[in-house]
Amino acid sequence: MKVKLKVESKWLDLERKSMSKMKRNYEDWERETLQKAKDAADLRDLRRVFYELGDRWEFDQATGAWLAGSEPLDTIGIILRMPGFKPNKERYVVYAFMAYSKGLTQKFDHLGDKERIIVERDAKTGQILCWSTTGHGSMDLFPTDLTHFKTLENALDSSYLVAQPGDHALRIELPSSSGLLNAFIRRLWEIAGGTKSFHTKSIDVLTADNIENSL
What we know:
This protein is of the alpha+beta class. It has six helices and eleven strands. It has two domains: about 1-10 and about 70-215, no CATH class; about 15-70, no CATH class.
């Protein structure tokens, strides 16, 4: 299914600058490494060059390919069906795997990020509650009620996923027509965060049924 993703523009622009710096650093590393290999007088010197590179050679090469061909907004999503904590409860986790970190990436070791929201459905009553997450995956104190959407997929189709600043932070933003309480909560987020501009993109999300029945 397709889901609409929003990312704050200033953080995305900052990440693009960080990626450009990383790409320059990678190109310098690649150039210096190739020069060391060319300067090797014999196989013994060449072996020493590869020993110095160690296990990071393949990782750094893959990183260079990613920097050359990816965009910070590249994202895919999956919905995992999990056991509930109580009888008649179903639990779902919506993950967004992002190509950029939202954590001011400076090194190859922290490329990408994993964001999530947590959903619980009462199989007996049909109630659906959702907990968005803030910095480092901290859950909301109070859940958002998605029951009127009937299914999690309907809720995602009608809403935005908002990638918030900071690692592991993902929020579901419901449409203004979804009720006074949800509109009020959305307004509180706007006040807390200040006036912002966003980049939006439609991303692919694998549902729990896709994963369990098709893969």
